[in-house]
Amino acid sequence: MNVPASVLVVGASAAGLATAEALRRQGYQGALRVLGAEPHLPYDRPPLSKQVLAGAWDPGRALLRPQAALAALDAEFLLGDAATGLDAGTRTVHTASGRALRADAVVVATGLRARPLPGQDALSGVHTLRTLDDALALRADLLAASRCVVVGEGVLGAEIAATARGMGLDVTMAGPQPAPLAGHLGPVVAGQLAGLHAEHGVRLRLGTAVGGLAGHGGRVTGVRLETGEVLPADVVVVAMGAAPATGWLTGSGLRLDGGLVCDSRCRAAEGVYAAGDVARWHHDTAGGLIRLENRTNAIEQAGLVAANILGADQPYRPIPYFWTDQFDARIHVYGTPSADAEVTVVEGDPAGRRFVALYRRDGRTTAVLGWNMPKQARLRRAEIGDIAGLAPAR
User: Fold this and answer.
1) Could you tell me which residues come within 8 angstroms of residue 305 by beta carbon, excluding any fewer than 6 positions away?
2) Which long-range contacts (C-beta less than 8 Å, at least 24 apart) are formed by 44-51?
3) Percent of the chain having pLDDT more than 90?
4) Angle at the Cα of 377 from the Cα atoms of 327 and 63, rounded to 5 degrees
5) Are residues 106 and 92 in contact, defined by beta-carbon separation less than 8 angstroms?
6) Rounded distance, CA 33 to CA 95, Å?
7) Is residue 162 classed exposed, middle or buried when 0-12, 13-18 and 19+ CB atoms within 10 A define those classes?
8) Residue 93 located in a structural domain
9) 260 vs 15: CA distance, rounded Å
């Protein structure tokens, strides 16, 4: 395989930056450009819902690398200019400003877009949290508010609820699942999370879907449940998940189905690759397409993509991993947990909020979860069996 003379990374994200760094680390000396829709240099997203939102970190601390390290990459960063289209045949990316950027290899690392609640754009005080600017705007609103409703009981919603409560707000979490992360981690761990949030004063109005928003004078005043009840709010945060940012690829000829679909080498077409949250690739051992939304995957997948651009021809077969911080709990999860799995505590004690649990299905360990026991959970990841046959994630 010929090494491409030029590489264009679309997305100045953790995955995008990691791809550029891995290329240079693996000896690539060709032309390298990184295109970003936001005006900011690459920054880390996990702190947005925690340290940045709480004000514990200055926004600059979330930057992934200092200016000097970025300059040492000898890469051209084209920021504040969103990709609007791709001609996959010629590997030409078109941008909002009218640029036509051609490269011998293109890496799609455009991540996710937050899913909005219908009607939220018509009211001030309603936020989603995906970008640094989102976090700063939400923080400013929370500082002037007393009541916050978080719509969504997943990882992001639970983290935002914990942060807002730590800022002194009256916080309510609403959503259709019976407990935080219940659909992902199952009733045993979700019950522990519900107890944790309740003990810290978060009001849990879970198990009922949200029907819409209430407002007055153009400002949100509450969240309307499908029962008709209205939860009063000065600020509403919509955290109902996110969708892969693939709209700009419409008409490219690439397969878009729950992400940018790739082969086991993370290749969507000749000379076109994907890394991070936007990539949905064939996981050989899972036996189907899978997509992961976490920081660790973004970095590991970027390294594999860089190697394959340079001719390695390697499949990407990770064991999924993510973590979340909520109040005084740090939870690490390896593998693929599910709500219907058998959960067994094998170390520690849930009553003391320090334990390791194994998830099993059909006699196989499919996931390991550590609650304030990171080392012990990491050591037990070897117990995860062959993930063949697991339902692929979307």
Assistant:
1) 19, 22, 107, 266, 273, 274, 275
2) 44/14, 44/295, 45/13, 45/14, 45/130, 45/295, 46/295, 48/129, 48/131, 48/132, 48/134, 48/135, 49/129, 49/135, 49/156, 49/159, 49/160, 49/163, 50/159, 50/162, 50/163, 50/325
3) 95
4) 55
5) no
6) 14
7) buried
8) yes
9) 14
CA distance 91 to 53: 38
360: domain CATH number is: 3.30.390.30
249: tokens are 């690829």
Per DSSP, helices labelled H in the chain are: 14-25, 51-54, 67-72, 132-143, 155-166, 182-199, 295-309, 374-380
3 state DSSP class of 86: strand
Q: By residue range, what is the domain housing residue 46?
A: 6-113+243-309
| Interval 244-298: pLDDT, tens | 999 999 999 999 999 999 999 999 999 999 999 999 999 998 889 999 999 999 9
132 and 205 co-located in one domain: yes
| Residue 52 identity | V
Q: Does 129 lie in the same domain as 277?
A: no
Contact between 252 and 108 under an 8 Å Cβ cutoff? The reply is no
Give the burial string for 54-92 (b: 16+ CB within 10 Å, else e): beebebeebbbeeeeebeebebebbeebebbebebeebb
**391 falls in which pLDDT band (50, 70, 90)?**
very low
Read off the tokens for 314.
């390697």
- Side chain identity at 106, as an amino acid letter? V
Structure tokens at 252: 């490219």
Over the stretch 218-253, which tens digit does the pLDDT of each residue have? 999 999 999 999 999 999 999 999 999 999 999 999
- Encode pLDDT of 164-182 as tens digits: 999 999 999 999 999 999 9
Q: How far apart are CA 193 and CA 158, in angstroms?
A: 9
* CA–CA gap between residue 291 and residue 294 (Å, rounded): 10
